[in-house]
Amino acid sequence: MEPALTEQGILIKHKSRGHDGVPYVVTQIVLVETNDTDESEWPVPPGTAQEQGSWITYLRRYQLVCMLSLNVEDDDGA
Length: 78
Fold this sequence. Notes:
Layout: H1 2-7, E1 10-19, E2 22-31, E3 36-43, H2 49-67
Antiparallel strand pairs: 1-2, 2-3
């Protein structure tokens, strides 16, 4: 997906930040030509490092789904 977005001048950036000891996954969509940005920030639920890693992967994916209004097939049960 990202190469197709890059061709359209859209950059996806993922990072993290913390608020009051709670880690957050931050996803930014940047329009390269104008440098306009849209940002989504979701907290990572507590858990082991492995559980938090899974949550980070899930949150990054679903932030993009929401921000880009994508229709996706639900494959969580697979």
